[in-house]
Amino acid sequence: MSMKRERTPRTWANRFGLKSAGAFAMLTAVAIVLTLNAFAQPASVGSPGKSVATKTTWNAAPALTTPHESGGISRSITVVGIGDSVTSGTNCNCESFVGLYATGLASERDLKTSSVNLGAAGWTSSQLLQNLTQPGAFRDQVAKADILLVTIGANDLNPLETKQAAGCPATCYGPLVDAVGHNVELILAAARAAHPDHPPTILVTDYWNVFQDGDVGTAENGWSFQSWSDVLTRASSSQICNAARRAGATCVGLYGPFKGNGSKNPTSLLAADGDHPNAAGHQLIASTLLANTPQPIP
């Protein structure tokens, strides 16, 4: 624009045959300066010209690209839960922790989520592993997981339920507990192999008790058995968490949330059978999982 306005006076002067650069030329130069200042002044005070619009667009760009806590994820996140009766929500008549977790994750991290609960009451780690390593609908659904929740192993120890502490030391229960850890590691490897191009974020829980607990457990089994089941629970939890860490998954401890250092009575978190979580228990599991979910989600 400025070059065009500088050329115009020279063309006008030549057309009229002016050969002197006298007073008229000086007045012309002054006029040019005043004209340029007049054009420049509105832009400097924020006129809606092109330069101001460009600046506004640039300033808006960070607001459009700044990621949320979700890492900027716009697609829907699929949460899949696999495991035993704790996962399936047995004896609760409530929404299990799988669905509660998905809902909480959507709210907490500004995400779209969906959930699939594949928990099966009574399953052992061997049964879960078998279903996960053979073609079929179960494996196909696990392969769709962005986040996989795993709770398994308590039913593996059912053969010990008829035994007493005095008759089953570590040499007795050790092989069963070790097998749980071994199978959990294989389960996690199989879950990742189900969709190698998109491995899920995996969270593995342990248990507050592999058998009955709270007032019901004490009334039906006595203090001695409860003390022994606590030993079994801690031993299996150690194996489960070690397996999870070796497989690159996150271990989420449920013993502390349910029982503190072991002195807390978890009755208020358990169903009437003393064995499975009630609605409050499932909510606690979901919130504990949320607090331990890695960020950002891949």
Keywords:
five-stranded parallel beta sheet; alpha/beta; 298 residues; Rossmann fold; 11 helices; disordered N terminus; 2 domains
Structure, briefly:
With 298 residues, the protein is α/β, with parallel strands linked by helices. Helices cover 53% and strands 9% of the residues. Residues 1-70 have low confidence and may be disordered.
Overview of this structure, please?
With 298 residues, the protein is α/β, with parallel strands linked by helices. The chain has two domains: 2-65; 76-291, SGNH hydrolase (Rossmann fold, 3-Layer(aba) Sandwich), CATH 3.40.50.1110. Helices cover 53% and strands 9% of the residues. It has eleven helices and five strands. The chain has helices at 2-15, 23-44, 50-65, 85-88, 97-109, 125-132, 137-143, 170-193, 214-246, 255-259, 279-291; strands at 76-83, 112-117, 147-151, 201-205, 250-252. Strands 2-1-3-4-5 form a five-stranded parallel sheet, with helices on both faces. Strand 3 (147-151), helix 8 and strand 4 form a beta-alpha-beta unit. Helix 5 crosses helix 11 (279-291), helix 6 (125-132) packs parallel to helix 8 (170-193) and helix 8 (170-193) packs across helix 9. The longest helix is centred in the last third of the chain and has 33 residues, at 214-246. The protein is globular, with a radius of gyration of 35 Å.
